[in-house]
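HUMAN: I'm a chemist; might I ask for a sequence paired with its C-alpha coordinates?

ASSISTANT:
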Amino acid sequence: MNILYVKPDEVGEKKIQVTSPEDIRHLSKVLRVKVGDTIPVSDGSEWEYVGRIEEISEDGIILSIVDKQKHGRELSYYVELFQGVPKSPKLELIVRKSVELGASAITPVYMDRCVNKPSGRENKKLVRLQKIADEAVKQCLSPRNPIVNEYMNFNDVLNVLSDFDLVVFPYEDEENRTLKDLLTKDSFALKDRHTFDKANEIDTTSEGEEKILKDYIPRIAVIIGPEGGFSTKEVDKFKSLGIRPVSLGKSILRTETAGPATLAMLMYEFEL
Protein backbone atom coordinates (compact mmCIF):
# COMPACT_ATOMS: atom_id res chain seq x y z
CA MET A 1 0.00 0.00 0.00
CA ASN A 2 1.22 3.53 -0.78
CA ILE A 3 2.25 5.81 2.07
CA LEU A 4 -0.46 8.04 3.52
CA TYR A 5 0.83 11.61 3.80
CA VAL A 6 -0.55 13.78 6.59
CA LYS A 7 0.26 17.19 8.00
CA PRO A 8 2.47 17.26 11.11
CA ASP A 9 -0.34 18.92 13.10
CA GLU A 10 -2.56 15.89 12.38
CA VAL A 11 -0.18 13.66 14.32
CA GLY A 12 -0.63 13.43 18.07
CA GLU A 13 1.28 11.53 20.70
CA LYS A 14 -0.78 8.37 20.24
CA LYS A 15 -3.28 9.14 17.45
CA ILE A 16 -3.29 10.35 13.84
CA GLN A 17 -6.33 12.29 12.61
CA VAL A 18 -6.86 12.21 8.82
CA THR A 19 -8.89 15.28 7.86
CA SER A 20 -8.28 15.75 4.13
CA PRO A 21 -11.55 14.99 2.24
CA GLU A 22 -9.50 13.62 -0.65
CA ASP A 23 -7.57 11.22 1.61
CA ILE A 24 -10.72 10.17 3.45
CA ARG A 25 -12.44 9.39 0.17
CA HIS A 26 -9.41 7.56 -1.23
CA LEU A 27 -8.95 5.40 1.86
CA SER A 28 -12.62 4.56 2.39
CA LYS A 29 -13.95 4.38 -1.18
CA VAL A 30 -10.97 3.39 -3.31
CA LEU A 31 -8.74 1.34 -1.02
CA ARG A 32 -11.74 0.27 1.08
CA VAL A 33 -9.78 0.12 4.32
CA LYS A 34 -11.50 -1.28 7.39
CA VAL A 35 -11.21 -0.78 11.12
CA GLY A 36 -8.21 -2.79 12.29
CA ASP A 37 -6.21 -2.38 9.06
CA THR A 38 -2.68 -0.98 9.38
CA ILE A 39 -1.21 1.51 6.91
CA PRO A 40 2.14 3.34 6.60
CA VAL A 41 1.99 7.07 7.32
CA SER A 42 4.44 9.95 6.81
CA ASP A 43 4.22 13.43 8.30
CA GLY A 44 6.27 14.89 5.46
CA SER A 45 9.27 15.61 7.68
CA GLU A 46 11.45 13.11 9.51
CA TRP A 47 9.04 10.51 10.88
CA GLU A 48 7.31 7.46 9.45
CA TYR A 49 4.53 5.66 11.30
CA VAL A 50 2.47 2.53 11.16
CA GLY A 51 -1.11 3.39 12.02
CA ARG A 52 -3.99 1.10 12.90
CA ILE A 53 -7.40 2.35 11.82
CA GLU A 54 -9.68 2.84 14.82
CA GLU A 55 -12.55 4.85 13.36
CA ILE A 56 -13.87 5.73 9.88
CA SER A 57 -16.44 8.43 9.22
CA GLU A 58 -17.25 11.09 6.64
CA ASP A 59 -15.58 13.68 8.86
CA GLY A 60 -12.29 11.89 9.33
CA ILE A 61 -10.31 8.73 9.93
CA ILE A 62 -8.58 8.10 13.25
CA LEU A 63 -5.52 5.86 13.51
CA SER A 64 -3.63 4.71 16.57
CA ILE A 65 0.17 4.79 16.27
CA VAL A 66 1.60 1.30 16.61
CA ASP A 67 5.12 2.11 15.36
CA LYS A 68 7.20 5.25 14.86
CA GLN A 69 10.68 5.59 13.40
CA LYS A 70 12.90 7.93 11.45
CA HIS A 71 12.42 7.49 7.74
CA GLY A 72 14.96 5.44 5.84
CA ARG A 73 14.29 6.57 2.27
CA GLU A 74 15.10 10.27 2.41
CA LEU A 75 17.99 11.80 0.49
CA SER A 76 21.13 12.88 2.32
CA TYR A 77 20.87 16.44 0.96
CA TYR A 78 18.28 19.19 0.45
CA VAL A 79 17.91 20.65 -3.04
CA GLU A 80 15.75 23.52 -4.29
CA LEU A 81 15.18 24.10 -7.98
CA PHE A 82 14.90 27.72 -9.12
CA GLN A 83 13.29 27.33 -12.52
CA GLY A 84 13.04 30.11 -15.10
CA VAL A 85 9.33 30.27 -15.98
CA PRO A 86 8.84 28.35 -19.25
CA LYS A 87 5.96 28.31 -21.69
CA SER A 88 2.88 26.44 -20.51
CA PRO A 89 2.46 23.59 -19.70
CA LYS A 90 6.16 22.74 -19.34
CA LEU A 91 6.29 23.82 -15.71
CA GLU A 92 3.91 21.01 -14.71
CA LEU A 93 6.25 18.42 -16.25
CA ILE A 94 9.27 20.04 -14.60
CA VAL A 95 7.60 19.95 -11.18
CA ARG A 96 6.58 16.32 -11.51
CA LYS A 97 9.95 15.01 -12.68
CA SER A 98 11.96 17.22 -10.32
CA VAL A 99 10.10 15.94 -7.28
CA GLU A 100 10.63 12.35 -8.45
CA LEU A 101 14.35 13.12 -8.73
CA GLY A 102 14.73 14.55 -5.25
CA ALA A 103 13.71 18.23 -5.26
CA SER A 104 12.41 19.33 -1.87
CA ALA A 105 11.30 22.73 -3.16
CA ILE A 106 10.66 24.29 -6.56
CA THR A 107 10.53 28.05 -7.12
CA PRO A 108 9.36 29.47 -10.46
CA VAL A 109 11.43 32.54 -11.37
CA TYR A 110 10.71 35.33 -13.83
CA MET A 111 13.90 36.07 -15.76
CA ASP A 112 14.82 38.46 -18.57
CA ARG A 113 14.18 35.97 -21.37
CA CYS A 114 10.98 34.40 -20.06
CA VAL A 115 8.26 34.40 -22.72
CA ASN A 116 5.55 34.20 -20.06
CA LYS A 117 5.39 37.36 -17.96
CA PRO A 118 3.63 38.01 -14.61
CA SER A 119 -0.10 37.68 -15.22
CA GLY A 120 -1.78 37.93 -11.82
CA ARG A 121 -2.89 34.29 -12.10
CA GLU A 122 0.16 32.85 -10.35
CA ASN A 123 -1.70 31.86 -7.16
CA LYS A 124 -4.16 29.76 -9.15
CA LYS A 125 -1.28 28.07 -10.97
CA LEU A 126 0.47 27.34 -7.67
CA VAL A 127 -2.50 25.31 -6.43
CA ARG A 128 -2.27 23.11 -9.52
CA LEU A 129 1.52 22.79 -9.30
CA GLN A 130 1.42 21.87 -5.60
CA LYS A 131 -1.11 19.13 -6.33
CA ILE A 132 1.21 17.74 -9.00
CA ALA A 133 4.14 17.79 -6.54
CA ASP A 134 2.06 15.97 -3.91
CA GLU A 135 1.06 13.29 -6.43
CA ALA A 136 4.67 12.84 -7.56
CA VAL A 137 6.07 12.34 -4.07
CA LYS A 138 3.41 9.73 -3.32
CA GLN A 139 4.34 7.88 -6.50
CA CYS A 140 8.00 7.58 -5.47
CA LEU A 141 7.17 6.68 -1.84
CA SER A 142 9.35 9.43 -0.41
CA PRO A 143 8.69 10.87 3.06
CA ARG A 144 9.50 14.37 1.75
CA ASN A 145 6.88 17.11 1.73
CA PRO A 146 7.84 19.01 -1.47
CA ILE A 147 6.86 22.66 -1.65
CA VAL A 148 6.16 24.74 -4.75
CA ASN A 149 7.03 28.25 -3.65
CA GLU A 150 5.51 31.50 -4.85
CA TYR A 151 6.83 32.96 -8.09
CA MET A 152 9.91 35.17 -7.62
CA ASN A 153 11.81 37.61 -9.78
CA PHE A 154 15.48 37.10 -10.55
CA ASN A 155 16.87 39.76 -8.23
CA ASP A 156 14.97 38.31 -5.27
CA VAL A 157 16.56 34.93 -5.95
CA LEU A 158 20.02 36.50 -5.70
CA ASN A 159 19.17 37.62 -2.17
CA VAL A 160 18.45 34.08 -0.91
CA LEU A 161 21.37 32.19 -2.45
CA SER A 162 23.53 32.86 0.61
CA ASP A 163 21.26 30.41 2.48
CA PHE A 164 22.70 27.53 0.45
CA ASP A 165 25.94 25.61 0.82
CA LEU A 166 26.27 24.99 -2.90
CA VAL A 167 24.80 26.78 -5.94
CA VAL A 168 24.64 24.89 -9.23
CA PHE A 169 24.39 27.26 -12.20
CA PRO A 170 24.26 25.34 -15.51
CA TYR A 171 25.01 27.62 -18.45
CA GLU A 172 25.09 26.59 -22.09
CA ASP A 173 28.04 28.85 -22.96
CA GLU A 174 30.33 27.39 -20.30
CA GLU A 175 32.94 25.19 -22.01
CA ASN A 176 35.59 24.43 -19.41
CA ARG A 177 34.02 23.72 -16.02
CA THR A 178 31.56 20.85 -15.70
CA LEU A 179 29.09 19.90 -13.01
CA LYS A 180 31.39 16.97 -12.24
CA ASP A 181 34.23 19.43 -11.58
CA LEU A 182 32.03 21.40 -9.19
CA LEU A 183 30.91 18.33 -7.26
CA THR A 184 34.30 16.68 -6.97
CA LYS A 185 36.44 19.77 -6.31
CA ASP A 186 34.22 22.33 -4.60
CA SER A 187 31.17 20.86 -2.92
CA PHE A 188 32.81 18.51 -0.46
CA ALA A 189 35.41 21.06 0.64
CA LEU A 190 32.58 23.51 1.27
CA LYS A 191 30.55 20.88 3.06
CA ASP A 192 33.44 19.91 5.33
CA ARG A 193 34.21 23.53 6.23
CA HIS A 194 30.58 24.38 6.95
CA THR A 195 30.14 21.24 9.02
CA PHE A 196 33.26 21.95 11.05
CA ASP A 197 32.12 25.53 11.75
CA LYS A 198 28.69 24.36 12.90
CA ALA A 199 30.22 21.70 15.12
CA ASN A 200 32.41 24.29 16.82
CA GLU A 201 29.46 26.64 17.31
CA ILE A 202 27.35 24.01 19.05
CA ASP A 203 29.74 21.71 20.84
CA THR A 204 33.52 21.71 20.85
CA THR A 205 33.80 18.13 22.08
CA SER A 206 34.62 15.34 19.67
CA GLU A 207 31.30 13.70 20.52
CA GLY A 208 29.37 16.86 19.65
CA GLU A 209 31.27 17.34 16.40
CA GLU A 210 30.63 13.73 15.43
CA LYS A 211 26.88 14.22 15.92
CA ILE A 212 26.87 17.33 13.69
CA LEU A 213 28.81 15.51 11.01
CA LYS A 214 26.30 12.67 11.11
CA ASP A 215 23.20 14.89 11.05
CA TYR A 216 24.49 17.45 8.56
CA ILE A 217 22.36 17.86 5.40
CA PRO A 218 23.89 20.12 2.73
CA ARG A 219 21.56 22.66 1.11
CA ILE A 220 21.90 22.89 -2.66
CA ALA A 221 20.36 25.41 -5.06
CA VAL A 222 19.96 24.56 -8.75
CA ILE A 223 19.20 27.49 -11.07
CA ILE A 224 17.83 26.82 -14.56
CA GLY A 225 17.08 29.44 -17.20
CA PRO A 226 13.95 29.60 -19.39
CA GLU A 227 13.79 28.65 -23.09
CA GLY A 228 16.00 31.57 -24.11
CA GLY A 229 18.58 30.89 -21.43
CA PHE A 230 20.15 33.46 -19.12
CA SER A 231 20.75 37.01 -20.27
CA THR A 232 24.29 38.42 -20.17
CA LYS A 233 23.22 40.73 -17.35
CA GLU A 234 21.98 37.78 -15.27
CA VAL A 235 25.19 35.83 -15.84
CA ASP A 236 27.23 38.84 -14.76
CA LYS A 237 25.18 39.16 -11.56
CA PHE A 238 25.89 35.52 -10.69
CA LYS A 239 29.58 35.99 -11.30
CA SER A 240 29.63 39.12 -9.13
CA LEU A 241 28.47 36.90 -6.25
CA GLY A 242 31.25 34.41 -6.92
CA ILE A 243 28.87 31.88 -8.52
CA ARG A 244 30.61 30.27 -11.46
CA PRO A 245 28.69 28.52 -14.25
CA VAL A 246 29.00 24.84 -15.08
CA SER A 247 28.37 22.76 -18.17
CA LEU A 248 26.03 19.74 -18.18
CA GLY A 249 27.85 18.21 -21.14
CA LYS A 250 28.27 18.67 -24.86
CA SER A 251 24.54 18.71 -25.64
CA ILE A 252 22.34 21.78 -25.17
CA LEU A 253 19.35 20.69 -23.09
CA ARG A 254 15.83 22.10 -23.20
CA THR A 255 14.74 23.98 -20.09
CA GLU A 256 12.31 21.19 -19.19
CA THR A 257 15.19 18.68 -19.41
CA ALA A 258 18.01 20.64 -17.79
CA GLY A 259 16.55 20.77 -14.27
CA PRO A 260 15.65 17.08 -13.96
CA ALA A 261 18.98 16.12 -15.59
CA THR A 262 20.91 18.17 -13.02
CA LEU A 263 18.90 16.64 -10.17
CA ALA A 264 19.61 13.15 -11.49
CA MET A 265 23.34 13.93 -11.56
CA LEU A 266 23.20 15.16 -7.97
CA MET A 267 21.38 11.99 -6.92
CA TYR A 268 24.06 9.88 -8.58
CA GLU A 269 26.85 11.83 -6.84
CA PHE A 270 25.36 11.86 -3.36
CA GLU A 271 23.32 8.66 -3.19
CA LEU A 272 24.75 5.97 -5.47
DSSP finds eight helices and eleven strands in the chain. The first helix runs from residue 21 to 30. The two ends are 26 Å apart (CA to CA).
